[in-house]
């Protein structure tokens, strides 16, 4: 074992260092300095293993040292030990085998957020709010959510034994669930937000995302969609080919979507619209925020550069480093930065990361960008005031100014509302969720237009006191604020709808209190102006402008 892990240390270190470039005889071409460094490295591993104060595994030392090495390169190059590598591969698949439930940690317990319609969990009557107490006899209290999910997954047709705790039941309920194929959905919601406005919330980019978007658009168009709100907030990205597949629906035929540039010849590539789908011919508003990154920035940047939609929200993260994942021995992998992403106008998406601390604690500056206050930019006099040296100016197909410097700056800045401290406290204690679960067991809610009134709020206050979440004085003080009362009623209604009719119904309710969504609905006239302008410009002129952008890039 000692010898195998010394060999593993060298093998993994070398493969990480040179990304598998040196094989066979080329390994012998390493310089003497490099060979000495490798000898010193393996000796350090050996000394740490033999003489450290407590027992330590060779694998832990090797994996930790590789992680430390890669952190000196950039924020996104990373080593993937077996569990992380396996998890990454699973997330990129279109489906897995399991029970069909969304779970989360609620008050320290593994709780069902909602069962997915048509899955083994829903057929067995598993409900929102159920606590999964044991999995194969093992208590879940000490498990992380990821550990529990791993135990719930398994080969198709196999069974897993669980016990659940449910409010109103004195004894745990034992269930045997047969695992079935569960699709991994990235279009989390697709529904008609208003009679003519379609809404799509895209959470990330995995194997089936392009096809999901195609189906969602077709379905919404059949329901009468005349304009689209595409929500990319908190979408951290994913697979490049799926970003291309999504952008294919929104950019002009054969237009550029993104370009990669790196150090080696094969890292330079330009990706264009494939022509597989005609560009959506309707006003489009795209919602973004600081959690919008990578592939989601590729899509929003392409839409903005080609004037195919209005970008609304707050500046995006600015993650434009291309990761190539290398498969290494022992079930591990490495995500290595090999290039950078540039939008069709030539804007670099990646933000500066000279200081890793500043990079990860970044709060986007909005003072110099157009801040929305319910007026148009012209009325508010809020044209961007940028220093071109720091934030170079680029021009969209229609000649609108857009800015480099990292990330995508929205056309209209709309900050998210800030909740009161008491509302945040209640959310942290999952109070609205737990109360709604309890409420639906004591009250029959059959009306999809149901709205909780003052009597429900009073019932909620009493419940908070009875459950020991707040004292009577804390409740009285916390609900003095009208915004807190309104937020509580909205969240209770949303959670009741989740328990009764599922996540789409719940999300429709949340959208009513989402100021960024509500403001976006008011901006479709401006999105329509872009659409009308594009239609009025000769295709040859647009093609010339796009070609000039490529040359300038």
Explain what the structure shows:
This protein has 553 residues and is of the alpha+beta class. It folds into four domains: 2-72, no CATH class; 95-183, Roll (Pdz3 Domain); 187-321 and 337-355 and 369-375 and 390-414, 2-enoyl-CoA Hydratase, Chain A, domain 1 (Alpha-Beta Complex); 421-519, no CATH class. The protein has 20 helices and 21 strands. A six-stranded mixed sheet has the order 10-11-12-15-16-21, with helices on both faces. Strands 1, 13, 14, 17 and 18 form a five-stranded antiparallel sheet that branches. Strand 11, helix 7 (209-222) and strand 12 form a beta-alpha-beta unit. Helix 13 packs across helix 16 (482-501). The longest helix has 20 residues, at 32-51. The protein is globular. The chain starts with a helix and ends with a helix.
Distance between the termini: 53 Å
Q: Are there runs of 5+ residues with pLDDT below 50, and where?
A: 1-5, 14-28, 365-389
Identify the CATH class of the largest domain.
Answer: Alpha Beta
* CATH level-two architecture of the largest domain: Alpha-Beta Complex
Mean pLDDT over the full residue set: 84
Specify the biggest β-sheet: 6 strands, mixed
Specify the CATH homologous superfamily of the largest domain: 2-enoyl-CoA Hydratase, Chain A, domain 1
Give the CATH topology of the largest domain: 2-enoyl-CoA Hydratase, Chain A, domain 1
User: Given the helix and strand composition, which structural class is it?
Assistant: alpha+beta
Count of the domains: 4
| 3D shape | globular
Strand order of the largest sheet: 10-11-12-15-16-21
- Range of strand content: 15-25%
Q: Which value, in Å, is the CA radius of gyration?
A: 26 Å
What is the helical fraction, as a range of percent? 25-40%
Number of helices: 20
Please count the beta strands (DSSP E, at least 2 residues each).
Answer: 21
């Amino acid at each position: 074992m000692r010898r195998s892990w010394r060999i593993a240390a060298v093998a993994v270190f070398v493969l990480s260092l040179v990304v598998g470039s040196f094989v066979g005889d080329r390994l012998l071409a390493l310089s003497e300095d490099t060979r000495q460094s490798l000898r010193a490295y393996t000796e350090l591993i050996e000394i740490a293993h033999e003489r450290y104060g407590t027992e330590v595994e060779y694998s832990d030392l090797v994996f930790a040292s590789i992680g430390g090495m890669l952190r000196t390169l950039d924020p996104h190059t990373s080593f993937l030990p077996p569990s992380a590598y396996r998890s990454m591969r699973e997330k990129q698949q279109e489906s897995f085998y399991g029970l069909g439930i969304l779970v989360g940690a609620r008050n320290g317990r593994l709780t069902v957020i909602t069962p997915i319609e048509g899955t083994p969990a829903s057929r067995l009557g598993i409900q929102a709010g159920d606590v999964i107490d044991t999995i194969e006899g093992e208590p879940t209290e000490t498990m992380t959510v990821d550990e529990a999910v791993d135990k719930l997954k398994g080969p198709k047709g196999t069974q897993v034994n669980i016990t659940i705790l449910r409010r109103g039941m004195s004894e745990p309920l034992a269930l045997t669930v047969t695992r079935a194929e569960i699709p991994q959905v990235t279009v989390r919601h697709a529904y008609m937000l208003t009679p003519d406005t379609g809404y799509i919330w895209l959470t990330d980019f995995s194997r089936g995302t392009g096809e999901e978007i195609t189906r969602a658009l077709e379905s919404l168009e059949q329901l009468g969609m005349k304009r689209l709100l595409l929500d990319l907030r908190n979408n951290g990205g994913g697979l490049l080919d799926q970003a291309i597949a999504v952008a294919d629906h929104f950019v002009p035929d054969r237009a550029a979507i993104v370009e990669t540039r790196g150090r080696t010849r094969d890292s330079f590539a330009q990706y264009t619209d494939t022509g597989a789908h005609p560009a959506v011919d309707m006003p489009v508003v795209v919602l973004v925020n600081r959690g919008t990154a990578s592939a989601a920035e590729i899509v929003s940047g392409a839409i903005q550069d080609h004037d195919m939609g209005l970008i609304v929200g707050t500046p995006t993260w600015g993650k434009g480093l291309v990761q190539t994942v290398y498969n290494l021995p022992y079930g591990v992998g490495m995500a290595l930065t090999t290039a950078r992403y540039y939008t069709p106008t030539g804007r670099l998406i990646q933000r500066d990361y000279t200081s890793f601390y500043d990079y990860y604690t970044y709060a986007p500056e909005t003072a110099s960008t157009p801040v929305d206050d319910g007026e148009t930019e012209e009325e508010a006099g809020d044209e961007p005031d940028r220093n071109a040296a720091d934030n170079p100016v680029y021009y969209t197909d229609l000649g609108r100014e857009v800015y480099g410097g990292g990330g995508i700056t929205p056309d209209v800045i709309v900050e998210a509302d800030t909740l009161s401290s008491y509302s945040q406290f209640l959310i942290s204690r999952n109070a609205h969720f737990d109360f709604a679960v309890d409420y639906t067991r004591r009250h029959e809610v059959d009306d999809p237009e149901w709205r909780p009134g003052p009597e429900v709020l009073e019932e909620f206050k009493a419940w908070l006191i009875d459950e020991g979440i707040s004292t009577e004085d804390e409740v009285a003080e916390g609900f003095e604020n009208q915004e807190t009362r309104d937020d509580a009623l909205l969240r209770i209604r949303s959670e009741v709808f989740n328990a009764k009719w599922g996540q789409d119904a719940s999300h429709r309710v949340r959208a009513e209190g989402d100021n960024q969504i509500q403001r976006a609905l008011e901006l479709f006239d401006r999105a329509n102006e872009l659409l009308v302008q594009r239609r009025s410009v000769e295709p040859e002129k647009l093609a010339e402008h796009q070609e000039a952008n490529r040359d300038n890039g």
